[in-house]
Each structure stands twice: as C-alpha cells, then as structure tokens.
Amino acid sequence: MNPLLQVRDLSVRFGAKEVVRGVGFDIARGEKLALVGESGSGKTITALSLLRLAGEAKISGQALLHGRELLSLSEREMRGVRGGEIAMVFQEPMTALNPLMTVGAQIAEVLELKKALTPAQSAQAAIELLAKTGIPEPARRAGSYPHQLSGGQRQRAMIAMALASEPALLLADEPTTALDVSLRGQILDLLADLQRGTGMAVLLITHDLHLVRRFADRVAVMEHGHLVEQGSVAQIFGAPQHPYTQRLMASQPRRDVVEAPPAPGTAPLVQAQGLRVAYPTALPGVRGWFRKGEFVAVHGVDLQLLPGRTLGVVGESGSGKSTLAQAILGLLPHGGQLTVVGQAWQQPATRNTSANQQLRRQVQVVFQDPFSSLSPRLTVEEIVGEGLRVHDAALSAAQRRARVQAALEEVGLTEAQFPGLLARYPHEFSGGQRQRLAVARALIVQPRVLVLDEPTSALDVTIQQQVLALLQRLQKEHGLSYLLITHDVDVVRAMAHEVLVMKDGQVLEQGSVAQVLDAPQHPYTQRLVAAAG
Do domains 1-85+167-250 and 270-532 have the same CATH topology? Predict the structure, then answer.
C-alpha cells in the first residue's frame, strides 16, 4: 500500500544558507511519526515547507501527498490543501488564534470555507468539535475569546479548528510545550483518541522525549538540517545508533547536589507561616459600588528554605506557584508572616524603602524565558551590570566592568568564546546562553537566595541539562539557596532537597524528594508523578 505522504531529498534554503538538507521519510495512513531534535535542527521548517509556508525559502525535492506533488502545485491549489487535507496545530495557541474573534467563530470560519456549511450549521458543528476535544460547557466556550480560556482549553480549541476539515494529515508543532505536565498527557491522549477515531496520520514535532515514547509509532531524528536516524520507538529508544541520538537519549537531568543537611539549629533563609496573597475583585451589582471582593491566590502557606538547599514548588498553572514566588520576592502585598534572611519586608512590600532595597539584594530571580526577560536594547555589559548600579553605586566603571566579566566567566561565558562579548546583544546568543546571562545578572549582586521560575522549560533537553549542571555547581560553590518553581518532575528530582505541592493556592503535600515523589500520599501528587513517568 502506498504511504499517505512521501518526502524525498527535501532541501530548504534561505538565500545562501541551506537549513534542511536531503531529508526523506514516509508517513502511512493512521500512523504517528515524531520528528525530534533541538531548536535549529530544521524540524519546524521541514513541516512548514510541506505546506509551502516557509516564507521566501527556496524548496527542492519531492513531497507527495496521495501521490500528488505538493511542491509543484499552484498557490490556489495549495490553499485547498492547507487546512483541508493537511492541518496544523501550532506551538503557542495564544499567538495562533485571532484575539478579536471568539473561538467558535474561528472554527466555524474553517467549516464554512472547507465544508461549505451554512453559518448556522458551522456554529453548531463548532460546538460539537469543541465537545469532542473535551472542553467543558462547549456551547458557552464557543462564545469565549482566546484570552478567556486556559492554556489547555486554547490548545484544545486549536485542535478542534485543525480537525474541522477532517484532514488526512495533522502537523502538530510542539503542541504541548507551553502546558503543564498533566495537561500535556491529556492533550496527547486526546490526539491519540481523535487519530484512532478518524484514521488521520500525525506528524508530531517535539523535543520532549517522554511524549515521543508515549505517543509515537516511529521516530525520525534531525540534527543541523539532516535526518540522522529513523525507526520504531522501540528501536530508537532501546538501541540508538547515531551519536547525536545517543546524546539526546542521555540528556535527562542528573542529580549532583550536596545531600548532607545543614547543622541542627541552622536558621532558614526564607520562612513563611500562614502566608496569604489575595487580589481585589469587583463585586457584581450595587455591592461593587461600596466595597471590593477578593480572590485568594495563596492560602495560608507554611514553608522554610535552609542555606544551601533547594525547595521545589510544583503544581499546574493557576496553582499559586508564581504568586508565592512574587510574594517572597517582595513584589506583592501579603498577609501572614514572611521573613527573608531573617528580615520581614516593610509593608507594603512593593515600597522601595532602603530596608526593602537591601533585602532585594539578598533574593534575586531567574525567569522562565530568557529572551523576554533580557532587554533587547541593552548590551551584555549593561544587562549584567545593572544590579551593581543600584546596590554598589560607588563602584567605578572599571570596577563594575571587572565584576561583570567575573560573573560572566563564572557562568561559562568568556571573551575567548565570544569576541566582543560585553558589547553584544541578547539576540546574538542561543537560548541556553541567554539563560546563562540571566543567571550572571542575578548572581552579580551576591544574593543568598535565587528564585528560579521554570528556568529550563523553554530549553531543549541537552541545553536544559547544561543549565541545571551550572546551577548545581553554583549552589555547591556559593552555598546558594534555590526556590525552584516548576511543573517538571524530572527537574525537581535532579535539583530539589524538599518538595512542596500546590493546587488552587493551597499546599497539598510537602516533604523530602523521596517522601513526596517516590511515595506520594495525595491523589493529586500521585497524578502529577504518574503523568511525568
């Protein structure tokens, strides 16, 4: 039987730069093929070139769908293929969905164009598609705008839109990267159920090896635009042949931390008792004229973080993890008791008093996405040295530059590797290198506590391993304490000494890594650990 899709000697070139070179693979009807590799390997460009959506790229080779050559079709003919025979689910639904249209209207638009349904038929079919993807109250959600849905619901709406035309092939480009671990599992299970029900083939583009093992039938591995290895999931995971595939399979986070606990009686660097954070909300009707309601994001949390230790805070989006971190950083007003390095924030904590400014030196933060957290208009020297202008204003320009260079060397960025390093801008670095810049910026003021907010979730597996190894080394050398905010159970296993599990603003379970992750007591923790397995 002929494959649904046959790709032969596919090459993609932007000007003089060839980014995909001689790629070839087949996808059978009803098959799930995972295309894996790190950022820049050519995965997404390969998929986009099948739909001729790779901008001004020059594409050569063959791409046969049902035996029909896609690369030689006219633009008019390709419009019939896109969203019809081949549909695509993008990585970030918030940027892929139209913010000015309800999700129901966006799905109905596809049905009117591709299925020639009437507006009334399209609206009803859109609700049925949303119901099929498991969105609760589909009729109500059809009238919602993208920003009114959660991340998982937006991704389900994207999948409903892609399935509207009953495609033969679905291209899923990192469809779960922005989601919590349990939501990732739900979306993959949904795709698998829908795929079995419709018989469509799926090309899954990802760097998450856990998802590949759970979802795919076959795997194709890309490196620097080349397809270096392909085979069944059992073959690739059980006996990888190519050195790059072997490195990918070995790139799981490794634990390398000081296990010995601090001496008895050691004072915690961060301690909270009954910590509470609430946001004001408008009350409906006349009541809202006279008083405000409140939404409690963190309910009575107790925790402590000892010197040289890592406290991992895990939970899904909306669990209160990031709100807890912001309160500890002195960025949100809070109730209850909270001390950082033995001192309480002067209330409101957001005031920039001299006491609060001194406390801010002791607790710094590294954010999830280094590209958005580093100013694109500042040079490396200005970014890393910014904290010194606030906390060590008496330093001369030469002294400040020397401190910046020392901080950069400590995180593995040197002038020898990157000529003109101090004058470069963030866009000139890879994701892992930008995260090293973010760590250097935090460390330069010599804090005792680092808040790590999903520090590796935006990175490839091999880069993730390097950044975690860097953080582990810095903790051992400087005795740093980390508050690690994450939904990645593997990262918690590698980094944390104690774990705190949050849901709906409350702590459900806490204890050592072994107690919480190896023998979870609460059903929610059990689901989180099972979803990561």
Answer: yes
Residue 298's nearest CA partner among 282, 270, 318, 268 is 318
Closest CA to 154 of 236, 92, 88: 92
CA atoms 225, 228, 233, 236: torsion sign:
negative
Query: Domain locations in the chain?
Result: 1-85+167-250, 93-166, 270-532
Residue pair 172/92 in contact by the 8 Å Cβ criterion: no
Helix (H, G, I), strand (E, B) or coil at 425: coil
Concatenate the DSSP letters of all residues of 60-95 into one string.
EEEEEETTEEGGGS-HHHHHHHBTTTEEEE-S-HHH
- Return the structure tokens found at 530: 């099972």
- The answer to whether 20 and 49 are in contact (CB under 8 A) is yes
DSSP string for 472-513: HHHHHHH--EEEEEES-HHHHHHH-SEEEEEETTEEEEEEEH
- Dmax over Cα atoms in the chain, in whole Å? 76
Tell me if residue 284 falls in helix, strand or coil: coil
User: pLDDT (tens digit, 0 to 9) for every residue of the chain, 533 residues total?
Assistant: 579 999 999 999 998 889 999 999 999 999 999 999 887 788 989 999 999 998 888 999 999 999 899 999 999 999 889 888 999 988 777 778 999 999 999 999 999 988 888 999 999 999 999 988 888 889 998 999 998 887 778 888 888 898 888 899 999 988 876 566 767 777 788 888 888 888 899 999 988 788 888 889 999 999 999 999 999 999 999 999 999 999 988 888 889 999 988 888 899 999 999 999 998 888 777 777 777 888 888 999 999 999 999 999 998 777 889 899 999 999 998 999 999 999 999 877 667 788 888 899 999 999 877 777 899 999 999 999 999 998 998 999 999 999 999 999 999 999 998 899 999 999 888 778 889 999 999 999 999 999 998 888 767 778 888 899 999 999 999 999 999 998 888 899 999 999 999 998 999 999 999 999 999 999 999 988 887 76
CATH superfamily of 270-532: P-loop containing nucleotide triphosphate hydrolases (3.40.50.300)
CATH fold for domain 1-85+167-250: Rossmann fold (3.40.50)
Residue 226, SS3?
strand
The answer to whether 363 and 420 have CB atoms below 8 angstroms apart is no
